[in-house]
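To whoever is on call:

I kicked off a structure prediction for a single chain this morning and the downstream step that reads the tokens threw a length-mismatch warning. I double-checked the sequence; it's 232 residues and nothing unusual in it as far as I can see. Pasting both halves so you can look.
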Amino acid sequence: MRKAIGWIAILLPFALIMGEYIISQLDLLNNPWFVKTNECYQVYTYGSPFKASISHYYYSSVGEIFTGALGTVALFLFCYKGHPLRKSEFGLSDKVMSKLAAFFALGIVAFPTTSKHCIEDNLRVFTSSFNTGIIHFAFAGLFFVTLAFISIFNFRRTKKVSEFGTKPAHNIYKYCGYVMLICVALILIYRVFLRDQYEWLDSIYPILILETIALIAFGVSWLTKGKVYKDF
């Protein structure tokens, strides 16, 4: 289960980008063999395969990949038990932390992100409001923060409480957690202080890049934990 969660996290951003690119190159959404094209429907206009953020793929031709991946991760996290919290250990148990992360993942899907501008390649019949976007952003931030804490604290526990953080793989968990926290902080700084003043930054997709880095860190942490399970 840990490996499955890790691979989904790492592959998700690349699957979204490549999926959007392939569908646009094959023009599948305007192909009468795949979809009904007649006077009732307008010709679908494809956008860039690179979106403002991972969450913006919700509105694109690969929106189901986005929601399906998050739903699958949420299901796995809900089922994940890990290890119980022992006396003198800091934080919450693996079970509680994973369920919190699962709840936040579902919140990301239930409250889609918003957009400053009209989404030209929007397959949905709506675009979320500013208020819904704020809720989405909060869920996304809490999701990554929870995952970061799992890596920094929960994954570094051992059979002996006194050996916390002493295994060779523990540095990987720690640094993956730090990377996720740094990415969340940089995204917050960009959204609050930089985005409106430096609109040219949108052209390099800073949020998409930072979210991809955070997802890779998330995935590496869980893949590593899956491989060294026998050590704890």
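Update from on-call: the warning came from a stale cache, not from the record. Cleared it. Sanity check on the structure: The chain has a mean pLDDT of 92.
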